[in-house]
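Comment thread on ticket #2218

A.B. wrote:
> Attaching the input chain for the structure job we discussed in standup.
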Amino acid sequence: MGFDGGGTKTECVLMDETGRVLSRGRSGPSNPFRVGVESASEALQSAARDALQSAGRAIHEVAAVVAGLAGTTRHDLAERMRADLSRLFPGSAVKLCTDSELALEAVGESPAIVLVAGTGSAAIGRDAAGRVVRIGGYGPQISDEGSAYDIGRKAVAMALRDRDRRGSDSPLGSRILCDLGFTAWDALNDRAQTSADEVFPKIFPIVIEAAAAGDECAQILLRDAAKDLAALVRRLIERLALGDVPFILAKTGGMIGRKPIFDEALDVALREGAPRASISSLSVAPAEAAARLALELLAPPKSAAIPR
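C.D. wrote:
> Ran it. Output below, let me know if you need it in another format.
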């Protein structure tokens, strides 16, 4: 069983010993840094239950589990989540990694960089010698430039500035209020003060729909986000010294593949800073990659050759 968990959703893939996908499960966020270890564990359990019920299987049949979770760069959180996974799947082989590490494993080849653009943002890369470097992903209060959270927060700030200037809501501001179900900015502000992780990422789909419909403010927000994400990749290229060599640049996360208007803006920004990169979306879903890694946990170790 493989999990891909982030700040908005958790996806689970159940696979048999031949590598055939039996079922998939889905639940809410499982980033322990954002929602806490208890809620993150509950999300994993819910997604697993969903997948097991769909396949008509029981939890004791799960032989190995790999979970790639955002927010587990902190050692203490990683250890607690690993312990919870071992408790949820007694007798199973368990491996925990970050969501970005999981995505890099899914690419397979080296040198390679993976850009993770979802509720948060981060980049991870590996040079030809196998050295791995990860940057970003420090949370919305510090970084996460270009992420869905960042776009949502900036969209609200832009809408309120427009309201201050005009005395009325801009088209984007009106759309944000309406689509989120608020009738006044005070109500949205109150919710954002206590549940920012819930509010701001939900605004990204609103912004991208508005941009596709021609809203200039929304288009500016997406272009700026694309530049911020490309800057993240450029910093990693410098760290890994990949500026003069061809490498794979894979994109993954909830922001990727929603609308051409953002994907195209991101590709333009990435090509400007990484002209030798082969750019594409991650070809294997991260949760499926996690399940394949779980299969590897069950593979018998290769016997060493006996010297003669």
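A.B. wrote:
> Thanks. Noting for the ticket: The domain at 110-275 is CATH 3.30.420.40 (Nucleotidyltransferase; domain 5).
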